[in-house]
Every structure is written in C-alpha cells, then in structure tokens.
Amino acid sequence: MEEQLVAVPAVLPPPEPPVPDGSRPASAPPVFEHRFIFDGRAGEYFRIWIVNLALTILSLGIFSAWAKVRTQRYFYASTRLAGMPFEYTAKPLPILKGRIIAVTLFSAYILAGQYSIGLQLGLALFIAVLTPWLIVRGAAFRARYSSWRGLNFRFIPDYGEAYIRFLILGIPLILTLGLLYPWVKGKQKAFIVENHRFGGNWFKFLLNPGQFYPPYLIAWGAITAWMFVFSMLMFGVIMASASVRSGEAPADWLVIGMTAFMYLGYFIVLAFLAAAIANLIYRHIEIDGRRFHSTLKGQKLLWIYASNTIAILLSVGLLIPWAMVRLAQYRADCLSLLASDDFNNMVAERSFGVDATAAEVDGLFDIDIGW
C-alpha cells in the first residue's frame, strides 16, 4: 500500500514589512501530510498469535519473551510512515530475564499478604519508590529498540525530574482530593515526550498542563450525571421490586443488570476521553518543525472497543488477533505527520544497550506511562 501525500495549508506568521530594496521574503514551503499506514492483516497475525499462545503454554510461560518480540516486530513492521516501516530490534533473552525478576517481585508482593500485612505494605512502598526509576528505564528500553529509516529512538534519563513528576507530585494530588490530576498528568506526559530524541533532534511538547483540564472536566461531569441517573433509576427499581415482592431483596439478575448499566456509562465516557486526550497530546508534539496530527473520534473508538469486546467474548478469545489488528488500523488511519521536508537531515546518534527489567516490571504492575 503506497502512502498518499496531502498538501495542507502551512500556518504562516504575519507578513513582514518589505526590506529596504523592495524585495519580499520567500514564501514558506508547502507542508505535506504524511499519513501513518498499518497494513497488517488479522489472518497473518492470527498465525503468529496462535503459535505464540501454544508455545507459551507448553513452555510454562518461558516462550512469552519470544512471543512478545514476534508480536512487536509484526506490528512495528506493519506500521509505515513516508513509505518506510518501523522496526523493533529487542532480543528475547533480556526480556525473559526482566520478566523473571518482575514475576518474582510480584509473587513476593502477593505472598507477603498471606503472612504479614506490614510486609506487604512495605513491598508496596518499595515498588512505589521504585516506580519513577522503572518508568525511565522502561521508556529508555522501548526507545532504544525502536527504529525508523534505520535510526533508533532515544530516551534520555532524568531520574531527578522523574521522581518529582511521578512521585513527589502525588502529594499535592492527594491533598487536593484529585483536583490536580489533569495538571499532574500533563506534567508527566511532557516529561515522557520531551526526553525523547530521534535523528539528532529533541521532541517538543507544546502543551500547557492546564490544557488537560477541559477534557477531564467534561468526563468528570458526564460521569457525575450518569451516576445521578443511575442512582435515581436504581432507587426506583428497588422500590418497585420491593413493593411487588413484598419487601424481598431485588433479584440477582436485576442487581447484575444495574451494575452492568453503571459500568456501561464509565465505558462510554472513557472511550471519548481516550480519543480526546490522544488528539490533544499528538497535536502538540513537534520534532524539528514537524508536527503530528491526530483525528481519533470518540464514537468510532467506542464502537471498536465495544464490538471488539463482544467478539472476543463470543469467540472465547480466538478473535483477539482480529481485535488488535482492527484497533491498530484505526489508530494509524487517524495519525499523520505534517512536514515540509523529506526527512533526509536526520542523523544517527550513538546508542547504548538498555536492560529490559524495568520495561517488564512496569508492564506487570500496570504503571501508566502510555498516552
């Protein structure tokens, strides 16, 4: 599939006054929209996925490191920008070592709860203190082994700033009962973006943390309204059920149905919030004058999430590859890079090996470092 280039209007500054000799400055070069393309196929990935699953089960999880590399390489190679695919170059053995350490740490945390709550709390505190380090090392690992046009991405560690944004800022976040959450998330996203480099250039994050408030406030308002409607509906149903059943508790199916209705509201709001936050972030990322552009739609993302979930449940998991490819296809279709050059001024930088332990630990403990 060939990339389609679309010329888009450049954002030009106000006209400059004529120079003394009467000549005028040259006009800005045209800006082209380089669209991301994902050309993976569900059937192709299903063959990779089913072999990964079988060998992971037969090897009691040992093959999972090789499965991750095979999966990442397929999705990277199926994603193209300006006609060039991305590459994932990590090796399975470092990932396996990281997973063993991660599983050991997680198992210790679980087992500690069987013997001593104090010991489990101590391990939880240890993991919390370790979290900023894990985030930095995990980001460095993923960047080091991701490349495009033969050039590796880089993430420059800044542990002091990481501890401020991912640990210290948690104190005012708690003291304000979560009201600082959008601002803190903005600071954290800026840290992740601005510490990345590619082709000799830093990524820039052109977004003020306060600009995260509108989508979060809308989401909070929607959830509050949904909870109010749910509470009124739940009260009415319970009263009607009690009167019909002479004071007996509501039937189990009714409780399950109302609980599902409550979570449906969360699901809808979170799908729209995910689209809004992704668009907000990508539209404010720049690298050497090139700007990203994202056009995710909340209703489309909601439909994909919902239909993927139903398809996976009805197929007892066999449609997981189809769901993953479908979501990757939509995300790529909605992402593009606005640039006026051919990317030839990008240069390679010296890269160093990065241990995979942190990447596997933050994945196991579900540390939020994504968009």
Explain what you see:
The protein is α+β, with helices and mostly antiparallel strands and 371 residues long. It has 2 domains: 1-8 and 57-168, no CATH class; 201-344, no CATH class. Helices cover 58% and strands 13% of the residues. It contains 12 helices and 11 strands. It has helices at 42-58, 64-77, 92-115, 117-144, 159-168, 170-175, 181-194, 213-244, 252-282, 298-314, 320-333, 357-364; strands spanning 5-8, 31-38, 79-81, 84-88, 146-148, 151-155, 196-198, 201-205, 285-287, 290-294, 335-339. Strands 2-3-4-5-6-7-8-9-10-11 form a 10-stranded antiparallel barrel, surrounded by 5 helices. It is globular. The protein starts with a strand and ends in a 7-residue tail after the last helix. Mean pLDDT is 85; it is low at 9-16 and 365-371.
Write the layout of secondary structure elements.
Layout: E1 5-8, E2 31-38, H1 42-58, H2 64-77, E3 79-81, E4 84-88, H3 92-115, H4 117-144, E5 146-148, E6 151-155, H5 159-168, H6 170-175, H7 181-194, E7 196-198, E8 201-205, H8 213-244, H9 252-282, E9 285-287, E10 290-294, H10 298-314, H11 320-333, E11 335-339, H12 357-364
Antiparallel strand pairs: 1-2, 2-3, 2-11, 3-4, 4-5, 5-6, 6-7, 7-8, 8-9, 9-10, 10-11
Helix pairs in contact: 1-2, 1-11, 2-3, 3-4, 3-12, 4-5, 4-12, 5-7, 8-9, 9-10, 10-11
Helix content: 55-70%
Based on helices, strands and strand pairing, what is the structural class?
alpha+beta
- Distance between termini? 27 Å
What is the CA-based Rg, rounded? 24 Å
